[in-house]
Amino acid sequence: PSMSMVRFADGSTATPLRPGTVVRSEVESEERVQVAVSSGKVRFDVEPGKRRVFVVVAGEVAVKVVGTSFTVEREERVSVSVEHGVVEVSWKDGSQTLRAGESGLFPPQPAPVDLEMDFDDVAPAVSSARGRAAVPPVASAVEVPTWRALALQGQHAEAYEALQREGKDAVRDNVADLMLAADVARLSGHAGQAVAPLRQVVGSHAGDPRAPLAAFTLGRVLLDELGRPGEAAGAFAAARRLAPGGALSQDALAREVEALAKAGQSVAARDRALEYVQSYPEGRRIQSVRRYGGVE
After folding, report:
1. pTM for the full model?
2. What kind and span of H or E run contains 6?
């Protein structure tokens, strides 16, 4: 626990905003970063374009992040305010997507219920042997976590199994659900099943700010995990097209060069490599781009 800034290996940061704030890193790996907020108020700046899942847990509320700036304040309930990007907030009984400029208190307070009953019409209960009214037994409901809740808790294998039980209609046609379903597939060892939801984001939700990340992730899955470099090159090109000059542009162009080279499209690979060298002469991937593109 610390009152000073917490910096993670991927460049993301957590900055306590008031005395008494307790924030600690619980998990930090290539696949997942999980941070717990026990009390106080914390600003998170999360690096976009990473393969890992970034989750902030505050009591029974979990906030799953792609790449954004947001604040979590924990008191009786948890306040989440988003400055940039998008987060998915989940709690025991539901979830909600918050976008830039939006905020909320979680879990939401249920609306009051007015309940009126007329006991005169209720038939007398059957008496027990001791003369007391026998109360019919009430079956206790066993709550089964949804695939979505399991995924937001980082239980990707369990979430994958739950999603198979719930069926494909359990994934809503919105970007948050589609990206989450893709994460479940990738991180549970079923990379091939991440392709469809990622393509749906790119094809049906191209105007969403998360679409470039979906395209880039699709390219990585196709190239690194499925060995389909020709399709991967198209996905990386889509990531650049959806956000020209965006945060992912440089990496997407470099990976496109690699994918084209591995697909045997040497002329196209060289053209893209020359484009990279001209656009990013000091780029962090310059050496690999020159190698894959055959550019000296």
Report:
1. 0.58
2. strand 6-7
